Amino acid sequence: MSVKYFTMESAQIITDGHNPDYGAVVDVSNGTDHPSILIVCEHASNDIPPHLNNLGLSPAARNSHAAWDPGALGVAVSMLDMLPAVLVNGRVSRLVYDCNRPPEAASAIPEKSEIYDIPGNVNLPANERQARIDYVYRPFETTLHHQINRHRETLALMVTIHSFTPVYHGKQRDVEIGILHGSDHSFASAMMDKIPSASTFDVRLNEPYSAQDGVAHTLDLHGAGNGLANVMIEIRNDLIQTPDTQRDLARFLSDWLIETLGGGT
């Protein structure tokens, strides 16, 4: 199979995610020198750079799922310990810029998220919007490009880790683990065919979100766009509230991924 990878000009990678206003916006953690899996956690943090004055948010809003994916980073880090993988995770709240959205998407810098208004994003001047693209999204995007290029001889899969709320707009969600895909459904479908027989989780395809909700940007740009098998995993966040439950879920997912990949990575 012919595989096409992105290339980068050196000028695009002279920034390593640091700048005076936004600080470090992306982290890379290597579990091995020859990873076969790229783990991505775009919504790992609810940090808001000080100069943005918390975007005018209340503490409740800043700590809510609207600002990040609680528990997702803990699962991703545990998976890194269990798999031949490299992890790329965001360090800035998705309310500053959602790195799983392209710059042209209004939801990349939302004025309202779930039940919360985001005052610091309302009527954002064009230059301030561009600054968030330049200093949050572009370093994240460039880091993913770099990791794919660096490990392109060994990478076989990109998996993005997210969490979701048990209750959304007053409605209880029964689904516990969602397996989502973008333009390439092959690995997600294979995972659904390989759900562990001992699993007691309510696992569903393309729930509680799907590509139609605009959540497939990373999958399509960095996964399918580079010929990598790819899948998004959504975990209901009441299942991953502690380090122990995060590690348990990580073990379940890691074993499932290895089985889907054919027993080897």
Notable features of this structure?
265 residues, alpha/beta, Aminopeptidase, 7-stranded mixed sheet, two-stranded antiparallel ribbon, 6 helices, 11 strands, 18% strand, globular, disordered N terminus
Summarize the structure in words.
- This protein has 265 residues and is an alpha/beta fold.
- It has a single domain (10-260), classed as Aminopeptidase, CATH 3.40.630.40.
- It has helices at 59-63, 72-82, 126-150, 186-193, 217-223, 243-260; strands at residues 26-30, 37-41, 85-90, 112-113, 116-117, 157-164, 167-168, 171-172, 177-180, 203-205, 229-236.
- A 7-stranded mixed β-sheet has the order 1-3-2-6-11-9-10, with helices on both faces. A two-stranded antiparallel ribbon has the order 4-5.
- Helix 2 (72-82) crosses helix 6.
- The radius of gyration is 18 Å and the shape is globular.
- The two termini are 18 Å apart.
